[in-house]
Design goal:
Structural class: mainly beta
Radius of gyration: 20 Å
Distance between the termini: 7 Å
Number of helices: 3
CATH topology: Neuraminidase
Largest sheet: 5 strands, antiparallel
CATH architecture: 6 Propeller
Number of domains: 1
Helix content: 10-25%
Length: 417
């Protein structure tokens, strides 16, 4: 049975993370900053077709590793573990995973005394191939390091994403803020040639006119066959809307060129997540910061270059991040908070019709007044699916399961409906 599209009850529109902007400027200064960037935001969000450039002819096949993709065990399997150790930071959040050419997994997240604090740093940890325990966290960049590398003031750092390119380099794109809250952010790039053990210095990207403010990142990219990287990003200041950042890697650690392209102007939608569907088609799901509180969906038929208008799905979204993954059998797997408000549950859903309808999958977490949020999905060549997420803002949790476990849980949910 498909998940019901019964209308949701009205919910509060009080600011929720990250829109609450801890440490934001006073109201008068914030309004002044909004005024300076209002015209830029309007221009950026008004037309999705004015950028120059050509659409990718094709996307790269998903890397399957040596010997192709394993079928995975037929017996249902789930293993729970932790990326971050207890007490490593008072508050941790916003993890991402990366499958390395060596077979290792790499994770990145941020941690500190609280979100938005000056002591927040980006950490990485590694799960060696065949191992069951993640290595101790390593600081990749903190505020002082970012200031030194970027040669400019940095007030705080936030979300980061990591991914390999077609040449085996590992990329990190992360958020830094020079003034104000998250809506005053910029994006920076670091690269690694040794599987994330050492990194190049940060390079700041200039993506918006006037003060180059308010571009953020959360989810993994798509890779074009011509080498370009299509990274889903979003704008938050004045207007909130999704964008696509197309990066062309250089021969060294840097970026040869980049351009940002806007989606049809649907305000209140952020943190796009992508799933390549094949034959030029790509699906996007979006976090909803409007009063509607529904997951939104958009599609591209030219490898992520142009997009349809986002439309409501049958699923709720409590203004919270979500992720989507195309499984090796062609189905789509979604992880999200199934609620109109709050983040006290985290569950899976499965679609066999490219996201038109969703079947409820296993419930991952549920506890009243707790937080389970910012999930990230990855499938590895051994046929296993990896899920990391924020666990009560105290730790980063890691769950590994196979298709047999997913199908077993989905069948159980169908019987319960």
């Amino acid at each position: 049975m498909a998940i019901s599209s019964t209308p949701l009850p009205p919910v509060s529109t009080a600011p929720d993370h990250p829109g609450s902007d801890p440490g934001a400027l006073p109201t008068r200064q914030r309004l002044g900053l909004c005024g300076l960037t209002l015209v830029a935001a309007f221009i950026a969000g008004s037309d999705a077709t004015t950028d120059s450039g050509e659409a990718p002819a094709a996307l790269s096949p998903v890397p399957r590793g040596i010997g192709g993709l394993a079928s995975g065990p037929a017996i249902a399997s789930r293993q729970d573990g932790w990326v971050s150790p207890p007490g490593h930071a008072t508050s941790v959040h916003s993890s991402a995973l990366c499958a390395l050419p060596s077979g290792d997994l790499l994770s990145v997240w941020y941690g500190g005394s609280r979100e938005g604090a000056a002591d927040v740093a980006l950490f990485t940890s590694r799960l060696p191939a065949g191992a069951r325990e993640w290595t101790a966290p390593v600081v990749v960049v903190d505020r002082a390091m970012a200031q030194s590398e970027l040669e400019r003031a940095v007030r705080k750092i936030g979300n980061a994403i990591i991914f390999p390119d077609r040449l085996g380099r590992v990329w990190m794109v992360y958020v830094s803020v020079a003034l104000g809250g998250w809506s005053g952010s910029s994006l920076n790039v670091k690269t690694s040639r040794d599987d994330g053990r050492t990194w190049s210095e940060s390079r700041r990207l200039t993506l918006n006119p006037f003060l180059n403010l308010s571009t953020l990142v959360r989810n993994k990219p798509i890779l074009a066959a011509d080498g370009r990287i299509g990274l889903p990003v979003y704008h938050e200041l004045a207007f909130k809307f999704p964008q696509m950042l197309w990066l062309t890697p250089g021969e060294d650690e840097g970026v040869k060129e980049y351009r940002i392209r806007n989606l049809p102007a649907k305000h209140g939608l952020i943190q796009p997540a992508l799933a390549a569907l094949g034959e030029g088609r790509v699906m996007m799901v979006l976090r909803d910061r409007s009063r509607t509180r529904r997951m939104r969906t958009a599609y591209s038929s030219d490898n992520g270059w142009t997009w349809t208008d986002p439309v409501d799905s049958a699923l709720p979204n409590p203004d919270s991040a979500l992720d989507v993954l195309r499984l090796r059998d062609g189905r789509l797997l979604l992880v999200y908070n199934h609620a109109a408000s709050g983040r006290d549950n985290l569950r899976l859903a499965v679609s066999a019709d490219v996201g038109r309808t969703w079947r409820p999958g296993p419930l991952i977490e549920a506890a009243a007044a707790r937080e389970y949020s910012y999930p990230f999905l990855l499938e590895t060549p051994d046929g296993l699916i990896h899920l990391s997420y924020t666990w009560e803002r105290e730790r980063i949790k890691h769950i590994t399961f196979n298709l047999a476990w997913l199908d077993q849980g989905t069948a159980r949910e169908a019987v319960a409906q």
